[in-house]
Amino acid sequence: MIVWVTGGAGFIGSSFLLRQVPRAPSWRFVNVDKLTYAANPRSLEAIATRDNYRLARVDICDFDALDRLAAEEPPDVIVHFAAESHVDRSILGPREFVRTNVEGTFHLLEIARKHWRPSLGADLRGRVFHHVSTDEVYGSLGDTGAFREDTRYDPSSPYSATKAASDHLVRAYARTYGLPTRVTNCSNNYGPRQFPEKLVPLMILHMLVRKPLPIYGKGANVRDWLFVDDHADAIWTVLERGVNGETYNVGGHNERTNLEVVDTLCALVAKHTGVSTEELLALKTFVADRPGHDLRYAIDASKIERELGWAPAETFETGMDKTVRWYLENQAWVASVQSGEYLKWIETNYGERG
Ligand code: NAD
Ligand code: TYD
Questions:
Q1: Number of domains observed in the structure of the chain
Q2: Index of the ligand 1 atom closest to the CA of residue 190
Q3: Cβ–Cβ contacts within 10 Å for residue 189, how many?
Q4: Atom 15, ligand 1: which residue's CA is nearest?
Q5: Dist. CA 278 → ligand 1 center (Å)
Q6: pTM of this prediction?
Q7: Strands across the sheet with 188-190, in order?
Q8: Does residue 277 form part of some domain?
Q9: Chain mean position to CA 63
Q10: Which of 50, 58, 118, 134 shows a CA-CA span of 20 to 30 A to 13?
Q11: Is 203 within a domain?
C-alpha cells in the first residue's frame, strides 16, 4: 500500500507522518511537499531514515512532476494536506492560495482519475482520496449554533474561499467520475511544530522575548481549538473506518475567545519559565482588526464521534500545556524557522506591531 501524504512537512502533515509511519510499517509513505516557507524538514528527523518513508520534493501544481512520481510510486491512498494555510497571508496575496489550494488540488484529483481509472470500472478497493479541509469554509457563526456537515458554505477570506473551491472539486470528482473521496473539515489546530505566524506559537514566542502580543480587534473572536495529534488521529480513523463520499467535521469542544487563549498562554509560559504572569499579560496589545474577520467558529463533531468512534484525547488545558513545553524545549527548531523567509515576512507584515 503506497500512501501519498501531500504537505507532509507542514504542521499537521508532520504530526500525521510522525505518528503513522512507525505504526504502519507495511504501508509506504511518500511525502509530496514543495517545501515552502511553512515546511520544516527538521520536524521529520525522527522518521527521515525509516524504510517505509520518503520525501519527494514536488510542487502539486506541476502535473508532469506528479505524473512522473505516480509512475515511480503509484499511490493507493492520497492524504491531501498541502495548502497555503494562513488567512492573513491570503488577504495580502491571494494568488498563491488559488494556485496551490485550487489548482494543486485539481492536479492531484487528475492524477487519481488517470491512475485509478474510476469511470472505467476499475477495482477501487483500498483506494481513497482524503481531502483535509477546514471549518472556515462554513463562514462565521453568531453567538449560538455549530457547523454541521450539511451547513451551507459561506467562506469569508481568500484562504477559506480557495479551500471551499477545493472541497467542491473533490466532491465533483466523486459524483462525476466515481472517485473514492473523503473530506474532513476541522477546527483550529494547535500544538508542536506549528509555524509561528499562527496565533498560539506567535504568542508563545513573543512572550519569551517580551514582545507585544498583537490581538486583533477586541480579542472577542471565538475559535474551537483541537490538539494537532487529535486531528492526525481523526484523519487516520476516517481512512480506516470512514465511508467514501462522506464528509466528517472534526473539532475539540474547546470554544475560546482569542483573549482567553492568550491569557491561558501567559499563565502557562509564566508557570514554566518563572516569569510573572502579570509581566506577560501586560504585553497584550490591541491592534487593527483583520478585514472580514469571522466572529465565531464552532464544530458539531457528533458524526465522526458516533459513526467512527473518534474522540479527542487532549483537553484544552493538557494540550496547551504540552504545546508551551514543546516550544520551550525545542529552541533549535524555533531558531531554524526564525530565519530567512519567516523573518522577512514578519518584518514586512507585522513590523509596525512589534
Ligand atoms: P502548513 O502551512 O503548516 O503546511 C503546509 C504544507 O504544504 C507545507 O509543508 C508546504 O511546504 C506544503 N505546500 C504548500 N504549497 C505546496 C505546493 N504547491 N506543493 C506541495 N506542497 C506544498 O499547513 P497546516 O496547518 O499543516 O495545514 C495542513 C492542511 O490542513 C491544509 O490543507 C489546511 O487547509 C488544513 N487545515 C489546517 C488547520 C489549522 O488549524 N492549521 C485546520 C483545519 C484544516
Ligand atoms: P490564526 O492562528 O491566524 O488562525 P485562523 O485565522 O485560521 O483562525 O488566528 C486565530 C485567531 O487569532 C483569529 O481570530 C485571528 C486571531 N489572531 C490575533 O488576534 N493576533 C494574531 O497575531 C494572529 C496571528 C491571529
A1: 1
A2: 40
A3: 24
A4: 83
A5: 35
A6: 0.96
A7: 188-190, 222-227, 255-257
A8: no
A9: 23
A10: 118
A11: no
- The residues assigned a catalytic role are 135-136, 159
Strand partners, 183: 131, 247
Atom of ligand 2 nearest to the CA of 134: 7
d(Cα 184, Cα 310) in Å, to the nearest integer? 13
Q: How far is CA 120 from the centre of its chain?
A: 34
Helix axes 158-177, 105-116, angle to 10 degrees: 20
Residue 173: which domain range? 2-191+226-253+293-315+340-350
pLDDT tens track, the chain, 354 positions: 999 999 999 999 999 999 999 999 999 999 999 999 999 888 899 999 999 999 999 999 999 999 999 999 999 999 999 999 999 999 999 999 999 999 999 999 999 999 999 989 999 999 999 999 999 999 999 999 999 999 999 999 999 999 999 999 999 999 999 999 999 999 999 999 999 999 999 999 999 999 999 999 999 999 999 999 999 999 999 999 999 999 999 999 999 999 999 999 999 999 999 999 999 999 999 999 999 999 999 999 999 999 999 999 999 999 999 999 999 999 988 888 877 554 555 456 555 443
Q: Is residue 283 part of a domain?
A: no
Residue 211 lies in a domain: no
Phi, psi at 45, each rounded to 5°: -50, -35
Would the CB of 83 count as within 6 Å of ligand 1?
yes
Q: Are strands 284-287 and 213-216 parallel, antiparallel or unpaired?
A: parallel
